[in-house]
Design the sequence.
């Protein structure tokens, strides 16, 4: 069975209070939004979260990638620590069960004590592994925290440039230069009205341009027609005289009207 490719990279609006940041798994974030975010936020979050296509500052991009690497290591360490926790609690549970049996069965106390002692040893071994996993997790957490600070510094440093890129590429009305403002009721309808008005304005501008072009063509055609009439009159003045030219002029006017 083929595994789906993980979509990751720098995205707009991964979180409501950050303009753009590294998204380590796009589909996982989508699933989380659908499953845990308020219903009135879901559509806006999914619509605004999209990959950045423009040129990202190298320093900011590098900080994002390092933070992603640190996050992965922290996540791996956390999983191992979580597994160690399960084993530790499982061993602790067994030791507790052994202790209960030892307490209930006085006659088999020695045997139960031995089992309890073995469970203690296993618990100690599990605790050592848990402690080692915890130290690695703690170290990874510190590195992740350092990477996050560098990313945050880069984010604040390049936020003005990112704002300009956002206006050019995304241009959404929900971002107020600090966070995404989610539409509720009337506010949402206002945005829809604004979009409809913008579309109507575009249609009217197109029609105005078409009418202006038709008007200009009419003027040009009219100039050509007047020139042709004057030329004919001038040519026929010498031959037929003014009276005849007037007749020709009337005939041409009639011809223009019929056309």
Sequence:
């Amino acid at each position: 069975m083929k595994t789906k490719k993980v979509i990751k990279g720098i995205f707009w609006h991964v979180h409501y209070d950050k303009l753009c940041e590294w998204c380590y798994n796009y589909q996982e974030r989508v699933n989380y939004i659908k499953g845990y975010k308020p219903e009135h936020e879901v559509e806006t979050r999914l619509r605004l979260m999209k990959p950045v296509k423009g040129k990202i500052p190298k320093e900011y991009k590098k900080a994002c990638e390092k933070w992603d690497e640190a996050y992965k290591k922290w996540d791996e360490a956390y999983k191992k620590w979580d597994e160690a926790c399960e084993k530790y609690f499982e061993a602790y549970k067994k030791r507790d069960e052994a202790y209960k049996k030892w307490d209930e069965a006085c006659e088999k106390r020695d045997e139960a004590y031995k089992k309890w002692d073995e469970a203690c040893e296993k618990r100690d071994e599990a605790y050592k592994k848990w402690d080692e996993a915890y130290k690695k997790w703690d170290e990874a957490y510190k590195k992740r925290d350092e990477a996050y600070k560098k990313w945050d510094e880069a984010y604040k440093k390049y936020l003005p440039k990112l704002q300009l890129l956002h206006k050019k590429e995304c241009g959404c009305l929900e971002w107020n230069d600090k966070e995404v403002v989610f539409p509720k009721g009337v506010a949402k309808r206002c945005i829809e009205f604004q979009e409809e008005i913008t579309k109507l304005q575009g249609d009217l501008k197109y029609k105005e341009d078409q009418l202006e072009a038709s008007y200009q063509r009419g003027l040009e055609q009219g100039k050509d027609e007047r020139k042709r009439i004057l030329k004919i009159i001038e040519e026929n003045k010498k031959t037929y005289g003014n009276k005849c030219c007037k007749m020709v002029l009337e005939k041409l006017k009639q011809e223009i009207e019929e056309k």
Summary: The chain has a mean pLDDT of 81. Residues 56-182 form one domain. Helices lie at 26-36, 39-48, 58-104, 109-169, 186-258.
